[in-house]
Amino acid sequence: MKYLLSLLFIFLSTNILADENTDWIFDRLNIYTENDKYFGTDDGYSNGARATALYFIPNENYDVYNLLGYEDEKTYSYITFSLANQIFTPTNTSSTSLITNDRPYAGWTYFETAIHKTTRTYLRSLSLKVGAVGPASGTQEIQNEFHRLIDSDRVNGWGNQLHNELGINLKYTQKWIYLIKSSTDFETSFSPFLSAELGNVAINTSAGIMARIGFNIPKDYGVSSIDIGADPGIPVYGEYVNMRAKPWSFSFNLIAKGSAIARDMFLDGNTFSNSHSVNIKHFVANYGTGFTLRYKNLVVDMMVVETTKQFDLQKETHGIGTMTLSYLF
Hints:
Number of strands: 13
CATH class: Mainly Beta
Strand order of the largest sheet: 1-2-3-4-5-6-8-9-10-11-12-13
Distance between the termini: 33 Å
CATH topology: Lipocalin
Mean pLDDT: 89
Number of helices: 4
Radius of gyration: 20 Å
Number of domains: 1
Shape: globular
Strand content: over 45%
Low-confidence stretches: none
Helix content: 10-25%
Structural class: mainly beta
Order of helices and strands: HEEEEEHEEEEHEHEEE
CATH superfamily: Outer membrane protein
């Protein structure tokens, strides 16, 4: 639990310092909650929570901002700081015994920082996640305290969870956006994306697309669940101010992604010690629908995503619902 408190301290202190730095402007706060209760289950990836602070960087005075290129184009630069927790459990959570034919119990609590550079048509993001897997993540306490508050059954198998391990992962994401406007405020956008992740927690590459259709649709690079794409709400250069000049935005959203997976600690088990594991499927797809509603500075995003089977003994696909509340500064 002390590791969880340390990450919380890092997240809060980093954002306090950033807010005092006149070179950064606090632009957006995102609060995510994810749960599979939308699909009537409580297993697999069962719950996630994340808070993200987005800062605009008006003066790119440091070399780190040039890592993402675009030297010859007009750009916006942003930096984000996030604190997240994700919970993974087998289907049978009442047993205290190791369930050998189902996925391991695993918790992942991490701090993430990322830099983003956007033009009128492209977004590049580079992020670093550092955190704890295992009892040090505090996930057992988080889940069972939440179940106590909602008067739900206690999850009894956490004694079989993955062992403590420091998790470090680097992720790169590239997005494109194609806006189709009409003479009215009815608009459509398509945003293909590619990503690659490397570290002891996950090794994978992904490709996908998000489509939006609606009224004065948000001029950013799309919304997603915690593990799909990059941070929601990164503005499109030159379009964002005009969108915010009108009080309302609304869009229906579609998203699809395919991934080639070399490693997933939450299925493969610990990297540096022996632990429970299952045989993963190396190709996985995600597909989902949702909507985005903005009124002035407040944004609500809802999305439900289905994921194909992730390991050999998995009996069926798994769904997760994501709600993101955002405030624009």
